[in-house]
Amino acid sequence: MESASDSSIRVPEVQLSSTAAGSRPMPVIGLGTAADPLDAAAMKAVVLEAIKLGYRHFDTASMYGSEEPLGEVLAEALRLGLVGSRAELFITSKLWSSDAHADRIVPALRQSLSNLKLDYLDLYLIHWPISCKPGTYVYPVDEADLMPMDFEAVWAAMEECQRLGLTKSIGVSNFSCKKLGNILNFAKIPPTVNQVEMNPLWQQKKLKEFCKANNVIITAFSPLGARGTNWGTNEVMENESLKEIAEARGKSIAQVCLRWLYEQGVTFVVKSFNKERLKENLGIFDWELTEGDYEKIERIPQKKMMLKEEFVSAKGPFKSVEELWDGEL
């Protein structure tokens, strides 16, 4: 199934598993709303432009502080007729670690819906595979506030969110094969999505195969390296192999990265406040990478950007983090 963007571009969609009745498919490209600092006015302007270009998937989180302005601009888009109905949109939000306790999850989702002025989400994710002290909403997290997650109790509450109709689908974010496998062992409603860092410099081959085997869709964040963030890098957009492919194909490096993800069967969330780049990011669906392109990408040295240390505000060694994560992220 596909949704139209503009007269020359069509955005493919994927059907998620284990969704509630009446769920719409997930557009393969979404627009992220995380920013530090968040400029709400600029974000609202870019969301309107994105909707005009054909974006229908918008990604937020309680910790981003962007739920309220996103809800306002989506309501404006509906009033202006830029979107025919709420059913055309696909909205993702995430549960913060301080609310990752069984009794806090349904109320946390209700608060997100209130912020967004929506009756339901299309997808609700556990933001990190770790809990922290209830009532603490800071990032990075103070290491003293970290707590092991009660995965069974937390996931049961996520399932309750779907049963109540507060979200059409549930999933996870930043989960390793081990952590995701743990959830799959006891889940009555399996996770539909795992949102993780993924790009040609961090290809996540093991996780990609594990998710594929278990019918879990990967959504890639930082598909272009998250330039401009405090943990991102220019290395993706300055990679010589990607430059060579882009020049040979007459495309941008960003388009090469996104096309590579798309051909992996991966969905992705991009972030740009630039209209031309937003449009450029949609220009990836009518061409293909070559076998030679794949050989070059295969040889790129791998380097993870989002480290466990980014999650906590403490000076290493991060012993408690390693213990809580079982050495994996």
Give an overview of the whole structure:
The chain has helices spanning 40-53, 67-80, 105-116, 151-163, 177-186, 205-213, 240-249, 253-263, 275-281, 291-298, 319-325, and strands at residues 2-6, 9-14, 26-27, 29-32, 57-59, 90-95, 123-126, 131-132, 146-147, 170-173, 193-197, 217-221, 267-270. It is of the alpha/beta class and 329 residues long. It has an eight-stranded parallel barrel, surrounded by four helices. A three-stranded antiparallel beta sheet has the order 1-2-3, with helices on one face. A hairpin with a 2-residue loop joins strand 1 (2-6) and strand 2 (9-14). Helix 1 packs across helix 2 (67-80) and helix 2 packs across helix 3. The model is unreliable at 1-8 and 315-323 (pLDDT under 50). Residues 30-300 form the NADP-dependent oxidoreductase domain.
SSE map:
Layout: E1 2-6, E2 9-14, E3 26-27, E4 29-32, H1 40-53, E5 57-59, H2 67-80, E6 90-95, H3 105-116, E7 123-126, E8 131-132, E9 146-147, H4 151-163, E10 170-173, H5 177-186, E11 193-197, H6 205-213, E12 217-221, H7 240-249, H8 253-263, E13 267-270, H9 275-281, H10 291-298, H11 319-325
Parallel strand pairs: 4-5, 4-13, 5-6, 6-7, 7-10, 10-11, 11-12, 12-13
Antiparallel strand pairs: 1-2, 2-3, 8-9
